[in-house]
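Running log. JK asked me to keep both predictions on one page so they can be read side by side. First protein, sequence followed by its tokens:
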Amino acid sequence: MRRLAFLAFLFICPGVAAADEVLYPAVSGNASAPTLVVYSSLDEPLAQPMIEGFQEANPDVAVKYEDMLTGEIYDRIVRETDAGQRTADFAFSSAMDLQVKLSNDGYAQVSNLPMSAAWPKWANWRNTAYALTFEPAVFVYHKPSFVSEPPPGSRAEFVDYLKRKGEAVHGRIGTYDIERSGVGFLFMARDQEQFGDIWSVISAMGAAGVKLYSTSSAILERVADGRFVLGYNILGSYAADWAKRHPDVGIVLPKDYTVVMSRIGLVPQAAADPELGRRYLSFFMSKQGQTIMARELQIPAVSPEVTGENTANTMQALLGAQLRPVPVSPGLMVYLDQVKRARLIEHWNQVLRTQ
């Protein structure tokens, strides 16, 4: 078997979580082949096609894939680096703020790659942190519940729908719990910046008995079986995967504006083998790697070289300024300011409670 899965404890010290490790031996069969170490928040089964594509192009490289939470990736890289130890060769995470903080604080190396100059400016921070995916925040809806009218297409329509339907939809709306979901907090913070009347949306959801969850799947499962009629600000890549497998799940990219987040890849400063890390990052950014991302992982690709339905190119051609990508820049670190974070969460909870 190519895949040898096991549970490994990181270090013998209090409070350190365990990570799921999967070893992909070198395709060449070379038992002494160099091993690329990846820390990633993308579930390993989803990442498998990308790893296999990389190994097909690099048959004499083994890959150790460590699947962990976004906060664990950040904490582990910082801890290992500060202790003078080696860390991952490549880090891939959906926590845009934490990845940029790693870069800004000197925990990431400069990676000058073949695609660096062609990469979108918003998706590249000083050749150290690269946005590798293009994932919109969408409305999801239960199609059978919208036979007689179209689903809301904007936040104003969303509020109007909730007010008109009243008790009929009470308790049947879902969104992220911004206290427990990093991507939920990011989307809410961007909403506050992009939409002056965002608290009317939160108020309307509170009045409709909105249910809060920390994961996309918990919301999408309830939309798919009809327990929920609508989900607000759901990560589009997960929504697309559910819609593909569950025909009753519909997707709307809000026409007033659509926030787009990205998963960021970087090579840590203390990487054990930074050249291997750069080779993997380069493959991730290549036409081949981004095509695997779009077609097999079902996550929209960023690369300007890749065309097709599930790409930034096509989405931007169709929707233009409606799409608001979150820039990869130190501006993201404002979301890590604990005082500002606490104020936003407190206001969120207060508005929901008063309803």
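And the second, directly underneath as requested:
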Amino acid sequence: MPTAIAVTSADLVLPAPDRHTPGAAVLRPPGEADLEGALAETTALLERHGHLVALVPPWLPPATVRRLHTVRAILETDRIALLDIDLPPLGTAVLARQLRQLTVSDFSPGVLASAARLLSHYIYAGAVLGSVAKLDRIPVGLKAHARSWSPSAQFAVLAHPQPHLARIGAAAAPAHGGVLPPGPAFATHLTFARGQLASDWVTAELAPAWKVQGVMENPLPADSARWWATPKLVEFAAAIPDVSVLYQLVASVRREQCRWCGFELIGDRCGFCAAPIAAPPPEDGAAPRPRAATGS
């Protein structure tokens, strides 16, 4: 069975783009499962899939993050990767879907885990917001704060890969290159989810401007309103949909072997043990000794 990709809530599991893409495992938070149940579920996943790659965004409740690390520590296994990926909720769900697509390829678990950081750079994640008065994820100027008090105010906000904020709608200035968030220079599909904001701007304005190849609507993740600091939103994420392009992107990066746990990886850090690819110089001048993977 392919490596299991895991998220922390069912609303982060987007529909599979094809019949070959497997689903995702949902690791239940402490309020839904006790520690014994979490250990049993994780053990079953490891027995079935061999390795587990879980996305652990920083906006998760601290109790959920502690539970994940506790389970890995108790099981004393090198086969669980907990990946710190800083994307908004819908962007996190899109990244999980891309990793699910790649699990059916010939990539090793180590390459698959470390590929998450690479793929995240190619995800354009943002939202249309009815207010930015409480938004602290990206810089918000005083004028935008003041305009947020207008009942008809709407803002286009891009959080990743580069922050961008502009007022949109009838009251906004004419389009002059600064209103629309800068889009990707490669082929993408656009996924969006509606909150409590009546706006068709994502499909009517953004999608044509970004020349996306397809648009898909999904339910809004439960954590989106908290992440964007308002329930009045339409969240969106544009990403590479073609698994062959994703494969070539990952395959083009030089592979290394983790000096600590022995997993194959790409980039500068192991997805399983988080060890950097370059070892720090030893204090006593002795060469560092790598630790063999336990394989447990």
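Observation for JK regarding the second prediction: The radius of gyration is 21 Å.
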